Amino acid sequence: MLQEIGLRQQELLTLLLERKEGMTLNNISESLGISRTAVQQHVTSLEQRGYLCKGDVKKTGGRPVQSYVLTDEGINAFPKRYAWFTTLLLAELKRTLGRDGLISLLNSLAENLAKELRLRFDGKSTEERVKELNGILEELGYQTMPASTSSTSNAHGLEIQACNCVYHNLAREHNEVCQFDISLIEALLDRKIDHAACMADGDPTCRFKVIEQPPSSC
């Protein structure tokens, strides 16, 4: 992300974002008002990060000069605002499908994703599956806590806990999206899940208690 690099390098990437055809070191030096040597250092650093790469060789005064362009990773480093579109999309899906229809769609999405990930869980115990699941949730942007043992009057088992929600504001407006997480976890662990706490409801963490019995087949 852009916050991870210095202001001058952010300015350099913005220049290349505006000029997709690429820029030479001299072009960048003139635009930023810094020396060519400084530009070379910034370009080398950004190239190592994968934010830019060598582009076409341009002719300046008859001499071939190397240009530099943004990579896809460099473009994706700029802030994105997907939440507003996702909110509109969910609202329309709920309007056309109804709440039950939206939940059914989210269940299907979770089951399809689980099919892609299931090989990572084959042959593993419930405890090993929970550990693997925590790794997957972190790949998706969650900050999970080490699996702990929970005990209640109606369930005994492991507990999955995340201290952040990747779609927190969205879940507060459309809490149906939580069903995606529940269905995904149930499919990957082959266990029923009790959604014991939810940050969208004001709880400090999201907690999913693993119930020992496998989910009943439909």
Structure description:
Mean pLDDT is 87; it is low at 149-156. The chain is of the alpha+beta class and 218 residues long. It folds into 2 domains: 2-76, Orthogonal Bundle (Arc Repressor Mutant, subunit A); 88-210, Muramoyl-pentapeptide Carboxypeptidase, domain 2, CATH 3.30.1380. The strands form 2 sheets. A 4-stranded antiparallel sheet has the order 4-5-7-6, covered by helices on one side. A 3-stranded antiparallel sheet has the order 1-3-2. A hairpin with a 4-residue loop joins strand 4 (144-151) and strand 5. The chain contains 8 helices and 7 strands. Helix 2 crosses helix 3 and helix 5 (83-117) runs parallel beside helix 8. It is elongated. The two termini are 44 Å apart. It has helices spanning 7-18, 25-32, 36-49, 72-76, 83-117, 126-139, 168-173, 178-189, and strands spanning 23-24, 52-60, 63-70, 144-151, 156-162, 193-197, 206-210.
Give a brief rundown of this model.
The chain has helices spanning 7-18, 25-32, 36-49, 72-76, 83-117, 126-139, 168-173, 178-189; strands at residues 23-24, 52-60, 63-70, 144-151, 156-162, 193-197, 206-210.
Can you lay out the helices and strands and say which pair or pack?
Blueprint (H helix, E strand, L loop, with lengths): L6 H12 L4 E2 H8 L3 H14 L2 E9 L2 E8 L1 H5 L6 H35 L8 H14 L4 E8 L4 E7 L5 H6 L4 H12 L3 E5 L8 E5 L8
Antiparallel strand pairs: 1-3, 2-3, 4-5, 5-7, 6-7
